[in-house]
Amino acid sequence: MNRRQLAFIILLNAFISIVVSSCVFWIVEQRRPDVEELAAILTPVSQTGTVSTVGSTDNFAISSSGNASSGNSGAATSSNTSTQPAELAPSTPQPIPNNNAVGGNTYVVQAGDSLTGIANQFGLTIDQLLNINNLDNPDFVFVGQQLILPAGSTSSTQPVQQPVANTQPSRVVNGTLQVTEVSGQGTLASEIALVVNESDAPFNLQGWTLGREGGPIYTFGNLPIFPGGSVRIHSKAGNDTSIDLHWGQPNAVWSTGSVARLVNVQGELVHTFTVK
C-alpha cells in the first residue's frame, strides 16, 4: 500500500466519523425537550388573575376565586389582587387535659391512670367501660392499653360525679388481695408489709391504700399485680421497684397488735391483718 492509498483511507475514516457524530448529535437534539415547554410545565399556576368580559347586561366577570358579578351595561370586570390567604376562624378543641384521646372514640391508658379516673374524666360509669371493652376486672388497666369510649364521650377538666355502679359484678373473682405478713415490726429499717394477690385475676393497685388503723396511710401508684404476685411495702425510705415499695416514714409504723387495712380505689375495705 502506497502513501496515497493510506492517506485516502485516513480521510475516508475521518469523514465517516464526522458523519456518524453529526447524526448522533442531531438525534440527541431532536429528543431534547423544548426549554419553553419545560418552563410551562414547571411554572406553577398563579392563584390570582383577572378575567374580564365586555358585553351586554348578560355578561359576567369571573375572577380566579370563583366569584361572579354582573353589570347593567358596558364592561363588567372583576379581579382578585389579594395575595393573602383567607383568614380561617379558629377552631375550639375539646378540653382534654393530657391529650391522650385518639381517634375520637378511644383513650390510651397512661402511667398513673385507673379505670375509675378514666370513667370520671369522661363522665362514664365503670360498668360502661367494662362492657364496651369486654373487660372483667375493674381494678386492672395497663399503660398503652386502648380503651373504647362510647360515642359522644368528651373529656372534662372537672371531675364528674360517678353514678352508682351496678352491684352485679361482670365476673366473679375468686379470692382477693391480702396482707399476709408484717415483719420487723417496731424497727423502721426492717419493717415490711407483704401484700399478695390471692385471686385468679390481675389487679392494678393505682389508688389503693395500705394503712395502720388509726395511723399513717400509704397510697399505691400505678402498679399491676398478677395472680400469685406480691409486693413488699417497706416503712423506710428507698428506691421503688416493681416488687419493693418504700413508704418513707420517719418512725416505725407497725407494732404487735396493730391492724393493717387494705382499701381499694372505691374506698372499700378489702382485707385486714393483725400484726402478731
Features:
single chain, 24% strand, 276 residues, Membrane-bound Lytic Murein Transglycosylase D, Chain A, alpha+beta, elongated
Describe the model.
It is a single chain. The chain is of the alpha+beta class and 276 residues long. The chain has four helices and 17 strands. The protein is 18% helix and 24% strand. The strands form six sheets. It has a four-stranded mixed β-sheet, with no helix packed on it. The chain has a four-stranded antiparallel β-sheet with strand order 12-11-16-17, with no helix packed on it. About 27% of the residues have low confidence.
Shape: elongated
Structural class: alpha+beta
Q: Can you identify the CATH class of the domain at 177-274?
A: Mainly Beta
Low-confidence stretches: 45-103, 157-171
Largest sheet: 4 strands, mixed
Could you give the distance between the termini? 126 Å
Number of strands: 17
Provide a count of the helices.
Answer: 4
Order of helices and strands: HHEEEEEEHHEEEEEEEEEEE
CATH topology of the domain at 177-274: Immunoglobulin-like
Bin the helical content: 10-25%
- How big is the Rg? 40 Å
CATH architecture of the domain at 177-274: Sandwich
CATH superfamily of the domain at 177-274: Lamin Tail domain
